[in-house]
Design goal:
The protein has 395 residues and is α/β, with parallel strands linked by helices. It is 27% helix and 23% strand. It folds into 2 domains: 50-261, TIM Barrel (Alpha-Beta Barrel); 265-392, Lyase, Ornithine Decarboxylase, Chain A, domain 1 (Beta Barrel). Bound molecules: pyridoxal-5'-phosphate.
């Protein structure tokens, strides 16, 4: 599994979302109107090409919002047993799963909740195919296509980087028992433009035609950043149509995560204190990069804040720091039109993908609320975490 993240976004929410003044912070807030806008793109791709689209729950999973997605999407794709179970119990449509390796216990449990189980290597297939077939489920093989146009983080998020553990390399594919394989699975993109999606589809069609003729479906993975401004969905649709014309017997599946939830929500935070160190003004927030936005440090990237500019661009510049003990728990340096003060609310944008699914309680930091901003302006906190969440993880 790769773990892509947000980035370098062209800001979609130039205006402050209509959040009630008194909401508790920190809070991750799903914007339903934005999610519906993104789902319309998925609906268009499906309607024009006949492909299946699954939500990769590793990127974002908010069961309270699954009813909004169920009519559009075909199901969910998981990174392991717990996500697969979540897909089965909370989404309730097709469940696919891929992991670089499974234990026998996992496969036995997965056959009860997943419909499609993708394996990484011929040896995993040899070990587990009998269990999958005995349970009447479908097996797939993840192939390393030797092609990637991941736009993020260099080799950190490139599933086809040298030495990658993801997928069977092309030179070992003859060891796959193709007659027992339902799906040719490949995941090679990360925050890819239409150029990446089209390139992958064309590359797979050309390089692996021989194997594609022996399976029933192809899964082109995730990383298709279909709702990112600048992504030409028409080009993806054209490539999928061409591919389907060439392989009319193949079902085609896409399993994006980030591309379905990019720009669909916020992290609302507040300033707890302002301090000075030499020439620097530092604002300490009730949120943290390390615990609430780990990708800020991991990718790394600079999240957008509504109304804020680059350091020095506006009159008042601050280093925004988190609450934890980690020196590097710094979100970045931003400038504002007015001075920040105790209680000033800051709204980080594009905070649904790979955000709250990755939070931690390091330092005993409380987790942000999870909330939903409805289309009519209604605001609902759907989950508030307490001490118990922190305590439970410590055994
Ligand atoms: C196998 C697989 N499928 C789908 C995805 C979802 O990718 P994205 O969220 O970039 O669309 C990932 C991400 O790591 C993945 O590893």
């Amino acid at each position: 599994m790769t773990s892509p993240a947000p980035h370098t976004a062209t800001l979609r929410h130039a205006a402050t979302p209509a959040l009630p003044d008194g909401i508790a912070t920190p809070a991750f807030i799903l914007d339903v109107a934005a999610l519906k806008r993104n789902l319309a793109t998925a609906a268009r791709i499906k309607a024009e090409t006949g492909v299946k689209i699954l939500l990769a729950t590793k990127a974002w999973a908010m069961p309270a919002a699954f009813p909004l997605m169920r009519d559009t999407l075909d199901g969910t794709t998981a990174s392991g047993l717990y996500e697969a179970r979540l897909g089965r119990e909370e989404f309730g449509k097709e469940v696919h799963v891929y992991a670089p390796a499974y234990t026998q216990e996992e496969v036995s449990a997965l056959t009860k909740v997943a419909d499609h189980i993708y394996f990484n290597t011929p040896s995993q297939i040899a070990r587990f195919l009998p269990s999958v077939y005995a349970a009447g489920k479908k097996a797939g093989i993840r192939v390393n296509p030797g092609f990637s146009m991941a736009t993020l983080g260099g080799d950190l998020y490139n599933p086809c980087a040298p030495g990658s553990r993801f997928g069977t390399p092309a030179d070992q594919l003859d060891a796959v028992p193709w007659d027992n394989i339902h799906t040719f699975h490949t995941h090679a993109l990360c925050e890819a433009t239409d150029q990446g999606s089209v390139g992958l589809i064309e590359h797979v069609g050309k390089k692996f035609a021989h194997y594609l003729k022996r399976v029933s479906a192809v899964n082109f993975g995730g990383g298709h950043f279909v709702n990112k401004p600048g992504y030409d969905v028409g080009r993806l649709i054209a490539a999928l149509k061409t591919f389907r014309a060439e392989f009319p017997n193949l079902e085609v599946v896409l399993e994006p995560g980030a591309g379905l939830v990019v720009d669909t929500g916020y992290l609302a935070a507040r300033v707890l204190d302002i301090m000075h160190n030499g020439p620097d003004q530092i604002a300490i927030l009730d949120t943290s990069a390390s615990t609430h936005m780990p990708d800020v440090l991991e990718v790394p990237y600079r999240p957008e804040i509504i109304g804020a500019g680059e350091a020095g661009e506006k009159e008042h510049t601050y280093i925004l720091g988190g609450k934890t003990c980690m020196t590097g728990d710094v979100i970045g340096t931003y400038s504002f039109d007015s001075p920040l003060q105790h209680g000033t609310r800051l709204i980080f944008t594009d905070m649904m993908q790979y955000s709250f699914v990755k939070t931690t309680t390091f330092n005993g930091t409380p987790l942000p609320d999870l909330a939903i901003l409805d289309e009519d302006g209604g605001f609902r906190v759907i989950k508030r975490f307490g001490y118990e969440t922190f305590r439970d993880r410590l055994g």
